[in-house]
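Q: I have three molecules that I believe assemble together. Could you output structure tokens for the complex as a whole instead of separate predictions?
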Amino acid sequence: MNSFGNAFAWLFAPEQWSGPSGIPARVLEHLGYTALAVLLGLVIALPIGMVIGHSGKGGFLVGAVNALRAIPELGLLILLVLLMGIGLLPVTLALVVLAIPPLLAGTYSGIRNVDRSVVDAARGMGMKEGRILMRVELPNALPLILGGLRAATLQVLATATIAAYVSLGGLGRFVIDGLYLRDFAQTLGGTIVIAVVALALEGLLILLQRLVVSRGLRRNPTRRRDRTVRPVEIAVETA
Amino acid sequence: MIEFRDVTKQYPDGTVAVDKLNLTVEAGTITVFVGPSGCGKTTSLRMVNRMIEATSGTILIDGKDIRDSEPALLRRGMGYVIQQAGLFPHRTVLDNVATVPLLSGWDKRKARARAAELLETVGLPAEMGRRYPVQLSGGQQQRVGVARALAADPPILLMDEPFSAVDPVVREDLQNELLRLQGELDKTIVFVTHDIDEAVRIGEKVAVFRKGGVLAQYGTPADVLRYPADEFVAGFVGRDRGYRGLSFLESSGISVDRVETAKLGKPRAETVADWVLVLDSDGHPCGWLPPGTSVDGSLTREPLVAGGSLYTTGTSLRGALDAALSSPASRGVVVDEDGKYVGVITARQVLDLIEGHPQAVSKT
Amino acid sequence: MNWLSRNIDAVLELTGYHLVIALLPVLFGLVISIPLGWVANRWPVARAILVPVAGIMYTIPSLVLFLILPPLLGTRVLDEINVIIALTIYTVALLVRSVADALAAVPPHVIAAADAMGYRPVRRFFGVELPLAVPVLVAGLRVATVSNISLTSVAAILGVPQLGSLFTDGFAVENYDEIVVAIILIFLLAMVFDGLLLLAGRLLTPWARAGRAVGAAK
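A: Yes, here they are, computed for all three components at once.
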């Protein structure tokens, strides 16, 4: 248990809390990598998932993209860095590959799960397809889309740790440096910070899901799936 | 024989589901528990196989307290059929039917052979044994449920609204099938339903329950319909019970009218003014000659209008009313036990007869 | 791909390590999550504790878990036991709620029928409830297997030998072949075991296929 004592000693040392290699800076860096990759993933996966979900065609694509989960992230990252050189681009690319499957699966199944009679009713009232998608299907699909977002964000956050292995920053820096320098206090301290950040982000995302979903519930009495969806479920449902 | 002695079921929240039930189900009969929802009929049934434990009182089977048997073993000795059939989705129809024999330690081949035999007994083709429950219709599933309950040849069969979930036509098939089976098997059957028609159709004895788990009346269907014990039973049995009651009235005192008859094959030359009943040489009714028909020469079957149902003397008045209402001549044809013409009867006469039976007239 | 033919023995050896590290946790996870799922389904209080805890465990990044376990367990950082335990934790986190939900989804009339026919509780669980949960279990196991096979490679950062070691070696000497071979191998292993589980699930649940056929016909 002395390891944890040392880790906390490292953690609370004043020099960890300032400067470009302090904990606050590394947290921001880490969140930055995560946000960039998730946003790019959203830009790609959201429209594709919406179109496939709405048309009902191309469901196989979701299954195919799902296979990306089987690609070992460390290998992909190292390969991209060797090909492109050290930098933000290869890291971001590798993380986007990770973010896309849950986002696509969440969007697709969210849209598919919308009660078809609601869609038919909208069509019957003369709504155009694009409007049906944006005004009817999307709001109803929100819980599952947010579930996908939550899964993607947490996976990207976890994996962004290994960016440090290819000489980038982020919270992995403490872990990797500690391992190199045989400074286990630093490694363990770093993992504690990562765990805290992951749990805090998870909490925030749950809160976001609750807020959006309950407001949606008042607006959309047709919704059948009114509970928040957890990443674990997205993973199982879209397997 | 199943005896309920002062059996009470009270839930922890104080609700009394069954209140001091005293009742004896005779061996080899179909006894129906009937009543509105929440009357304790299902609870009473489920206490027999200890799916629900009685709070107080005793249930005896052939004089033996059911609490002396371990529930699992007790249950293997009783067939149980429920509304949704409760078939195991993951087992083939054959293996579903073989469940209890297998549980009781039969070897697999023997249990399956028995199951195949039972599928036939309940009127299903043997090939169906290879299917899964999801591939059967509701009526077929229910037959499998009955076969499964019969698999270990238990002397007692408990049936909890077994036919309520299927459509009326299939339900009637299943009811007939059950009556036919019972003719062969002679089980002690307790049958729960909320449908009084089903109860009087199937039951040899009917126990009417009221809310709060009180037994309101226990007797033959005819007794329950003719002499309802109280307002509740009268109300539950329903307004049209006068008509239901007909099935149980002896009609020895029925008086019949005569109508003009003609013999098939006898030469005739006339135009008939009123309905003429045509008989064959043995005196069996063949049909009616409608008014305005001209007959020239020997009388053939060709101009005849088929008659309605026939009413055999000595059977229930319901048949007499049916005969009168279904006859084209508005008069029901009454025949004797050999099917020979006796006379005719009008619906009015049947109704008068019913009113002559004060018990059959509804108070409401 | 000359590299592969020259190093085939080493690659096979690493593949063996990789499979042991990735798949033992699937087995352990299954064995642990069935009783836990049963408990969660049986008692609401247990569920209210187990399900959120599973969620939290699933949230913790793998590298973090690999590194926090050694001081907790008194193991060395490069022991593969840490990785096996961490992946077992993920597998349990993934499966426990699925098992509970699958058990809760067994129709009450099927349970009632089993009771009425004289099933005792243990036999009912293994003869009726668990078989009916198989489709859900297989779905969970497939996700766990694919993710375990992929996550195992991260342990290379700690120096635990398995196919991921080819990434770190390849990085050090800038050997593309080594890295590509490992990526493809890991990907294929994941796909093969996913397929095997899918197949096993189909073979175990002919009734589910019959149900799907009926559903499709309607």
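A: One point stands out. The mean pLDDT of chain A is 86.
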